[in-house]
Amino acid sequence: MSYTTDHVRIPESAVINLKNASHRISSKVTTPPEGAQGVIACQGGNMSGWSLYFDSHSKPTYHYNCFGQYLTTIRAEEPLDDGDHEILIDYQHDGGFGAGGLATLYVDGEPVNSGRIERTVPIIFSMSGETFDVGVDTGAPVGPYPHGYPFSGEIHEVVLERMSRRDRETRRK
Predict the structure, then answer these.
(1) Contact 137, 125 (CB under 8 A)
(2) N-to-C CA span, the chain
(3) Are the beta carbons of 125 and 12 closer than 8 angstroms?
(4) Which of 33, 36, 41 is nearest to 10 (CA)?
(5) Is there a contact between 113 and 74 (Cβ–Cβ < 8 Å)?
């Protein structure tokens, strides 16, 4: 599914479900000469969710928050130059209900960092109205950044892709 900055405050049930499956989150962005900051896309809130964003040093970053207890941050080592870029997180799920997996961050087709997510949210990120947003985090921040944290560059597209089916045992739950 493809999303743009027109997609903010989208209920979790209206967005492709990436839980308990391998998936990719990709974005095409243009970063400004002064450096990029802000949220590319996020889902959930400060108690559970994920966010793909640029930190205050213009480094692409992926943050996964499992119930506010298990936090994983995967960040590029270097800031990006201005211009057009593709930022992608590739998550390979171990299989199973709420199981973990390996997340790899790519910039312009090259892997720049990876990390293990030990546990994942199995059913729902939020029952309190947290949503999916492109270009801003409209709820309680998923990641360690200020409320809102709008993207300072241009977002052309965000694509969410589920790459595997949930295993039979997980589908029964």
Answers:
(1) no
(2) 25
(3) yes
(4) 41
(5) yes
Encode pLDDT of 134-154 as tens digits: 999 999 999 999 999 999 999
> Which residues, listed in sequence order, are joined to residue 105 by a DSSP beta bridge?
89, 113
Q: Mean of the per-residue pLDDT values for the chain? A: 95
Q: Going along 55-169, which residue ranges are E strands?
A: 60-66, 70-75, 83-93, 101-107, 110-117, 131-134, 154-162
Q: What domains are there in the chain, each with its CATH number? A: 2-172 (2.60.120.200)
CA–CA distance, 169 with 173 (Å, rounded to integer): 7
Q: Which among 32, 30, 17, 11 is positioned nearest to 93, based on CA atoms? A: 17
Which tokens go with 168?
């039979």
Question: Which stretches of the chain are DSSP H helices?
Answer: 168-172
